[in-house]
Structure formats: C-alpha cells, structure tokens
Amino acid sequence: SVHIIFRHGQRTPDTSYVTTTGG
Fold first, then answer.
1. What phi, psi does 21 have (nearest 5°)?
2. What is the reported pLDDT for 21?
3. Where is composition skewed (Basic residues) in this entry (predicted)?
4. Are 13 and 23 in contact (CB under 8 A)?
5. CA distances, 12 to each of 4, 8, 18 (Å)
6. What is the 3-state secondary structure (H, E, C) of the chain?
C-alpha cells in the first residue's frame, strides 16, 4: 500500500520506499 511517509523533510507517497520498509 502507498502511505504518506516523511522523506527529505516533506510528505511524499513513495511506493518503493514503503515496499523497502515493509509498509
């Protein structure tokens, strides 16, 4: 699932990041 995550100080929906972190 695509979640709003914090990266580089801003909220970015990043499918790859979510997959990497296990969502």
1. -85, -5
2. 55
3. 1-10
4. no
5. 6, 9, 11
6. CCCEEEECCEEEECHHHHHHHCC
